[in-house]
């Protein structure tokens, strides 16, 4: 029997609108520096991406739900939806969200989906709405939950609750919270680090609701200097279609230019900053950088090169 759970995203829309208006007004009354606040075109792009993601998610859900239901019917396990199991399912979903989020930063074909969310140079509540249109890459990470007997509808509820929680952490208007909250929860301070483009901040703080996963798996960094938001090489476009697809186009170019099948696989499945071994004939003795990569900041890991855009997407 399918559990009867509320659509928390739908019920949260009035709160999203109200909080966004409050944040906009707060910048009018007490403006920060020029880097903060709102840009009309940027905010419009974020909202458009969010609306588009709703439509595309409906398409992706058809095959995904079919796969989930098939696996759910095959497993003999069942997790009942009760007052005390819902927090446990939320905890488990947040754990797998951490690994999904981390995977979407370190595997280039997955980053091509997630880069959309990082493409804004602003960090405000509309940034939370800047969602990809190709989120079909997320579903494999939650197969263990379905195999353990979590009903797909219960998983969808947990994912929605996680998404709603993350809305409020996309703001510069909230400073650091008291230490106990900062230690356990994902907060605006932690998530500002995640959206920053500085080398010391790249690929950090992947948690959804809880930040404890980052502390456990050594991906946590505290906010010390003010973040610079966006990509290491930003895309100079507000065209939603190009925002949604620019990294896929870069991958296609790199695959076409690759000199071997091993390099083609690397361009797709390795990190966004990955480069193959030097090939004979390259002037510098190193292989050409991928179309979507720029050099990482000094002292940053190679993966730090990933927050980039293709040269073509900057037109």
Your description of this structure?
It is built from eleven helices and no strands. The chain has 315 residues and is mainly α. The chain has a domain at 8-176. The longest helix has 35 residues, at 40-74.
Order of helices and strands: HHHHHHHHHHH
Instruction: List unreliable stretches of 5+ residues.
Output: 283-315
**Residues in β-strands, percent:** under 5%
Output the radius of gyration: 20 Å
- How far apart, in Å, are the first and last alpha carbons? 52 Å
Mean pLDDT figure: 89
The helix content is 40-55%
Q: Total number of helical segments? A: 11
Which of globular, elongated, flat, extended, rod-shaped describes the shape?
globular
For the report, how would you describe the main beta sheet? none
Classify the secondary structure makeup into a structural class. mainly alpha
Strand tally is 0
Tags for this model:
11 helices; 315 residues
Structure summary:
The protein is mostly helical. The chain has helices at 8-29, 40-74, 85-106, 108-114, 143-147, 152-167, 179-184, 188-195, 212-216, 240-257, 261-269.
Could you give the topology of this structure?
Elements: H1 8-29, H2 40-74, H3 85-106, H4 108-114, H5 143-147, H6 152-167, H7 179-184, H8 188-195, H9 212-216, H10 240-257, H11 261-269
Helix pairs in contact: 1-6, 3-4, 3-6, 4-10, 10-11
């Amino acid at each position: 029997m399918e559990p009867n759970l509320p659509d928390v995203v739908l019920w949260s829309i009035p709160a999203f609108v109200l909080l966004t208006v409050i944040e906009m007004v707060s910048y009018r009354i007490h403006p920060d520096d020029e880097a903060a606040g709102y840009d009309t075109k940027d905010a419009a792009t974020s909202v458009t991406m969010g609306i588009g993601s709703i439509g595309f998610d409906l398409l992706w859900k058809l095959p995904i739900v079919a796969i989930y239901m098939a696996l759910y019917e095959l497993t003999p396990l069942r997790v009942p939806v009760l007052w005390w199991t819902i927090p446990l399912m939320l905890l488990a979903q947040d754990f797998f969200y951490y690994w999904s989020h981390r995977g979407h930063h370190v595997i280039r074909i997955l980053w091509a989906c997630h880069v959309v969310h990082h493409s804004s140079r602003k960090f405000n509540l509309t940034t939370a709405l800047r969602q990809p249109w190709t989120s079909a890459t997320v579903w494999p990470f939650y197969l263990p939950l379905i195999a353990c007997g979590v009903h797909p509808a219960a998983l969808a509820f947990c994912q929605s609750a996680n998404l709603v929680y993350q809305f409020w952490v996309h703001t510069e208007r909230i400073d650091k919270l008291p230490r106990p909250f900062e230690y356990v929860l994902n907060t605006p301070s932690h998530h500002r680090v995640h959206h920053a483009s500085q080398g010391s901040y790249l690929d950090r703080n992947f948690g959804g609701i809880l930040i404890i996963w980052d502390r456990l798996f050594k991906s946590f960094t505290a906010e010390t200097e003010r973040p610079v938001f966006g990509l290491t090489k930003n895309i100079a476009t507000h065209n939603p279609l190009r925002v949604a697809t620019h990294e896929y186009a870069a991958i296609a170019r790199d695959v076409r230019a690759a000199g071997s099948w091993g390099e083609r696989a690397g361009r797709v499945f390795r990190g966004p900053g990955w480069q193959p071994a030097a090939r004979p004939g390259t002037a510098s003795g190193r292989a050409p950088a991928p179309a979507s990569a720029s050099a990482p900041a000094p002292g940053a890991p190679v993966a730090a090169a990933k927050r980039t855009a293709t040269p073509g997407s900057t037109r």
